[in-house]
Amino acid sequence: MEAQESGEHKYVYDFAEGNKDLKDLLGGKGANLAEMTNLGLPVPPGFTITTEACKAYLTTGREPDGLAAQIEAHLESLEREMGRRLGDPDDPLLVSVRSGAKFSMPGMMETVLNVGLNDRSVVGLSNQAGGNDRFAWDSYRRLIQMFGKTVCEVPGEEFEHALDEIKSAKGTHNDLDLDADDLRGLVDAYKKIFAKHTGREFPQEPREQLDLAIRAVFDSWNAERAILYRRQERIPADLGTAVNVVAMVFGNLGPDSGTGVAFTRDPGSGAQGIYGDYLANAQGEDVVAGIRNTVPLQELEQLDKTSYDQLLGIMARLEEHYKDLCDIEFTIERGKLWMLQTRVGKRTAAAAFVIAGQLVDEGLIDLDEALHRVNGAQLAQLMFPRFQLDHEFEAVAKGIGASPGAASGKVVFTSARAVELAAEGESVILVRRETNPDDLNGMIAAKGILTSRGGKTSHAAVVARGMGKTCVSGADELDVNVPAKRFTVGGHVVNEGDVVSIDGTTGKVYLGEVPVMPSEVVQYFEGELDPENTDDALVRSVHRIMTHADAARRLRVRTNADTGTDAARARRFGAEGIGLCRTEHMFLGDRRELVERLILASGEREREDALAALLPLQRADFIEIFREMDGLPVTVRLIDPPLHEFLPPLEQLAVNVAVAQERGEDVAKEEALLAAVRRMHEENPMLGLRGVRLGLVIPGLFAMQVRAIAEAAVAVVRDGGKACPEIMVPLVGAVQELETVRAEAERIIAEVVGDSGVEVLIGTMIEVPRAALTAGQIAEAAEFFSFGTNDLTQMGWGFSRDDVEGAFFWRYLELGIFGISPFESIDTDGVGRLIRIAAEEGRAARPGLKLGVCGEHGGDPDSVHFFHEVGLDYVSCSPFRVPVARLEAGRAAITTTGSDSR
Ligand code: ADP
Ligand code: MG
Ligand code: MG
């Protein structure tokens, strides 16, 4: 075009000039319209205005230089191709103006159909359609309605109200019963509504309609709901939208016309077949608007066999071309099929796995590519128990699936009531308009949380995800009345104590208790379902993809496990060792008494006695774990929390003492404990006497643990097993701390293992920022590093996790200070930088230094990719996250050129 020849920036592309890989520039819709055009499929001609033009407009507040002329040039060539001029009174060309960003944002932005109609061209349109007045006036009233609503912010209800009035005056509910005169009257009514709200007449000039509609699409990028949606879906805010101008085709020309949507496979289950809806004599948006009942796509075969067969052929062609599930919008104009949109379709987690497997079978993709068609978040979803849904259960509302899981329970409206009922052993669902930090106790007590407001970053959503609790947020059909202790939804009244069920994955809300069924994917990981011998397509596909991920990945995957039971389960889930075995639980229960003795010991003797009593108990714990992990490495962390955590709380002790004194009982022990608790009180226990500091301050404590570990290893080896213990010192900040602990530990280990052949590694956690920054020194005394990313995040950001998540993280997310909680996904810029430095400097000082991570981030998909990239040897995570980490480690190791599942 002329514009480019003069060396000017190109802002407008004909469909023939684009292709599917230009989504950044042309948006998803435009890129795929271009792709279909170039495949020779029947796409109405048109052109795309780039996201760059949109960005320029949004930053400067006006259309960039040259844009108007380029639009003019492309419009002229469209007019030539169609043999009609935009809005020509005798024979008008009409166009649609459609938004389309890089990522689909369903329903978020604007589209205007029938641009080019006015009081004169409406007559021309009728003539074009062989004197079909009804059609022409129906198209015109739709233009005024859509243009008014999306371009000029006229409240949509007013138009709907006027339509309802005409229908009820005619005594009908069906808009097809309105004739041309009715619709002409409706156009008049719409124009009045338009003028009333905008202070001007409906624009009659076609080119002005077009320009205003384009501008409205640009502006819709920054509409409030679009901003909220992007935040929820983590879509960057600066992409902008493209605008597609497409010649109109008409599905509302009569019974031989219509419009529909289709999927090339079932997006719910992945099953092959034809899935879609069709509506005769209708224009685009009617299908989804639900104003008339659609019919299943299969029925099109009876209505118009030629178009149906052609459509099926095109769907097969698209699948083969995109090598994936596609969804499609089409229109039939008097027996002629037109393709209006396609894209790689969204799908459920189960369908993602099933389809990836099918496409491999069909030879369309290889296993490397299949690995990129699924992701760890989807696998995690499939590992939650699900509701067993049949016809009896129909959702009464749908909110946002804010934190996955399936939960049923009695409805409560206050935190206090949630705590009360939970204490009585009831399952409760806490229902609120939105939660706030005061609801924290109730949220902890509840099985699930349901709110009528707020999105994925609301307080309820953020806190629930942090707690791993099921949550549905923003179920706005719910009218929640907290003082009256009830909510209403679709004519139902739900009172406190009534049972509801919520699905934190789909966001659906059900009345009554829906039975829960176990996940077949977990059954498979548990070894209860044989993947080679099941007709469950999902399990077969998961097995195949996991096997491929395991073969591909470089990162090893270990688990965090403190007991033999957890260790055994994690091993079934594929763990290749234990990356974090905490020892503190070994000081709880009936062993508390020994810990109290240790703390209260008045001399060396008493302390040694207490430790000596703990030794065999710890040894037995370790033997159990080493046996379960036979042959695999087990990293045991020496005791980490402050010792006062093992004592009863101050208030409770004070009461005990008072009561006992009252009764005249002997209170010597309680008083001693009380004094100890007062003495050991810390303002900031997270930064107090804990971790390695305990080992350096309390003689014999670490020595006892090291001895128990070494003795357990020797015992297992003597029994014919293989134990590979790794002793991990927590909270080290300076190499001198580690050296001191190490010297003593080495002495004990040498003494215990003798010639048994047992080898014990000694290493440290890197969780204090100073340790990361002096990693070169620390590596001299450590055979391995394990990054404790929870503490590293706490201390890196100065966040006390328990305090900040409930108090203000939602606000930080809202403000975009971070896009996701740094406790959920590693903050690669800051905390990640500490990890990078420590890995590099540690390895430089000690080549072959083993590097792992044992915070919860070890099971977070994005974090796993980061740890792969930084070159760690392994990640360690909770047993249920082990499969997720295996999958993501495989995906991180394989880079493909194909599409990537977001
Ligand atoms: P959305 O992204 O919300 O689906 P679209 O831009 O796809 O919005 O348009 C909304 C509806 O209008 C769709 O059903 C689409 O198929 C229909 N439509 C868009 N452009 C045309 C056109 N040129 N001719 C006929 N129908 C159209
Ligand atoms: Mg569409
Ligand atoms: Mg820690």
- Main β-sheet: number of strands, strand sense, barrel status? 8 strands, mixed
Number of strands: 33
Strand order of the largest sheet: 14-24-23-16-17-18-19-15
Q: Could you say which structural class the secondary elements and strand pairing correspond to?
A: alpha/beta
- Bound heterogens, unique: adenosine-5'-diphosphate, magnesium ion
Q: Work out the helix count.
A: 37
Helix content: 40-55%
Distance between the termini: 36 Å
DSSP strand (E) fraction?
15-25%
Poorly predicted runs of 5 or more residues: 898-902
Shape: elongated
Mean pLDDT metric: 92
Q: Radius of gyration, rounded?
A: 33 Å
Task: Outline the fold blueprint.
Elements: H1 2-5, E1 12-14, H2 23-38, E2 46-49, H3 51-60, H4 67-82, E3 85-86, E4 92-93, E5 95-101, E6 111-115, H5 121-128, H6 133-152, H7 156-170, H8 180-198, H9 206-220, H10 224-233, E7 241-247, E8 258-265, E9 272-280, H11 286-289, E10 295-296, H12 300-303, H13 305-322, E11 326-333, E12 336-344, H14 349-361, H15 367-372, H16 376-382, E13 386-387, E14 397-398, E15 400-403, E16 406-412, H17 415-423, E17 428-432, H18 440-445, E18 448-451, H19 459-467, E19 470-473, E20 479-481, E21 486-489, E22 492-495, E23 499-503, E24 508-511, E25 516-517, H20 520-525, H21 537-552, E26 556-560, H22 564-572, E27 578-582, H23 592-600, H24 604-628, E28 633-637, H25 650-662, H26 668-680, H27 692-697, H28 701-718, E29 724-729, H29 735-753, E30 761-766, H30 769-773, H31 775-779, E31 784-787, H32 789-797, H33 801-807, H34 809-814, H35 831-845, E32 850-853, H36 861-870, E33 874-877, H37 882-893
Parallel strand pairs: 3-4, 16-17, 17-18, 18-19, 26-27, 26-33, 27-28, 28-29, 29-30, 30-31, 31-32, 32-33
Antiparallel strand pairs: 1-2, 2-7, 5-6, 5-7, 8-9, 8-11, 9-10, 11-12, 13-25, 14-24, 15-19, 16-23, 20-21, 21-22, 23-24
Bound molecules: adenosine-5'-diphosphate (ADP) and magnesium ion (2 copies).
